């Protein structure tokens, strides 16, 4: 619930005064602040007091926010005081959607023009042919939409240039992979293999595998080199160091291509500094093709979750993307008459997923990209339960690229929260044509009362949040959908907390909230737009503890 206007500000200051009064009368229950951060431009992401000058921290939480004079009045003999030098201080950023630990199993071939449009089929085949002359281990490479949309029989094409060497090509965006005959043989994939829950194998007119694997069939990477706890610990450890240097204090990990068990073991070994919420991958956990298995895995994981780590989900991929032309669209894809994409789940399967989500306590996350897939989801949710039931579940829509203006009222009514990725809003045309068959929105979501969070959709490595902040305030393909600086920063902080159901605990600089704080190298609210990606954090604090300090704040450790 949002507090606005005079009443909100009064309530805010009353909270501060009550805490201060308890301290000043010597209450045994409250100690002096451990830290004062003063002389700052504090962006709170709290509508009750959007801006302030200083913050007091005690016991890992925000004790007070206000003017320098108000906060200095709380200082005790042991309180540490940090002068921010007029810099912008914000809540710690929340990376609301990232994929980590999904590297290709062998060093990938260099391919031209990635990410867009990527190599041509001829360029990719030539590179594979050259590599096959000297390599016997897996030849791997990332490819782009020119190959993702090419309808040739890729198994035959790769066999012609690398008959005896296994080859694995993967779309850089996920959702589609390509393997040759030797690769299929080494993986033990027979011609009569059944389609997995939530995915399918490409086949030619005779029913023979054509080398393509879509959606849940895309488990080729872990079959070649399964993820290990030790390997993931290294990946997560390095990622959280770089995130700390950007002021990121919470991470929502989309856990594809690996089991929840090995991910949690990797996080435990990495000794998390930030707060991690792991969204378990629905189809990864359902080896017996049973949808309830995805929740059973989460239940078991709750008993061994490391400190600072939560497990939510499961996450289900309801359709693909327009890049490979598999997201379910209202209109047929350009150049493919009669093809509108497809759903990854039947009506009965989608119904079971939604019914279990209503019955189980964990949060449901859904990859939904096509506008027709969005229509399908909304209709089934409305059939299964009243809007009030869904609002209490706070279902996450990852990407939300297919949410058009005609769906705003339904999305808002069901209480869905959208996690948008600004990089999607800047996808360039390929061969002079848009990859998305419909307009994508950002600002209009907030105007319609739909909660918004921002994430990078980065992977296999983390991505600069300030690059995404820049893209969110530009939206080069549709400038009218650009966010203001304050809106974008709020979506990256309070919005991320709301998306994971933690809005009462973090995401704002307000009394009682977690002391997750970033002191930024430049004022992202006023800096030239093109300079935003150069932003770093000079001081990053999680639960009142410093996890990164630039040289000028080294004494803060």
What do we call the CATH homologous superfamily of the largest domain? Metal-dependent hydrolases
Q: What number of domains?
A: 3
Strand content: 15-25%
> What does the main sheet amount to?
8 strands, parallel
Structural class: alpha/beta
Helix share, percent: 25-40%
CATH topology (level 3) name of the largest domain: TIM Barrel
Mean pLDDT across residues: 92
Query: Uncertain segments of ≥5 residues (pLDDT<50)?
Result: 1-30
Give a verbal description of the structure.
The model is unreliable at 1-30 (pLDDT under 50). An eight-stranded parallel beta sheet has the order 8-14-15-16-17-18-19-20. It contains 18 helices and 23 strands. Helix 8 crosses helix 9 (260-270). A hairpin with a 4-residue loop joins strand 10 and strand 11 (176-179). It is globular and about 80 Å long. The chain folds into three domains: 5-91 and 542-556, Roll (Urease, subunit C, domain 1); 94-99 and 227-506, TIM Barrel; 121-224, Diaminopimelate Epimerase, Chain A, domain 1. With 557 residues, it is an alpha/beta fold.
